[in-house]
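lol ok so funny story. i was supposed to be doing the assay writeup but got distracted and ended up predicting the structure for this chain instead. priorities right. anyway since i did it might as well share w the group, maybe its usefull for someone
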Amino acid sequence: MRTDWITRAETGADIPAVREIELAAFDTPLEADLVDALRADAAWIDGLSLVAADQEGRLVGHALLTRCHIGDTPALCLGPVAVLPTHQNTGAGSAVIRAALAAAESKGERYVTVLGHPAYYPRFGFTRASDHGITVTLDVPDEALMALTLDPAHPLPSGTIHYAPPFGI
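and the output, tada:
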């Protein structure tokens, strides 16, 4: 696994490449379209769309954090996360997720939620959301909904996650 990934905030010039990463990583254009819709939504937070590049500067990965709420408490939603198929299992996804979480923490954010693979996200500190009284209005496997506090002095709040309108939830 490589450790020399370059991670940084997305710039306007990166938007076409980010869309290509999303299109390549998923079977349908839903995630790419979601990222585009979120860019135009109030849930978008500048500096929390991160990219991973190789040593030549070619973008290979993307992670997005947008505003959501756990009950009435502001939180972030991680996703979509995408890596070009040719670069999956190389550490690019982990690098860009770690960079996104660090960027969120530097902005004073406290809580992050993710709906994803239960064997992957715990390596970043995510735990089962239901253990903290966090739910969603979707029918999803309990172990796939996870949450993380970026500041151990502030335990996760309980409540239902409310996503930005582009998620359609």
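DSSP finds three helices and nine strands in the chain. Strands lie at 6-9, 49-53, 59-70, 73-83, 111-115, 127-128, 134-135, 145-149, 159-162.
back to the writeup now i swear
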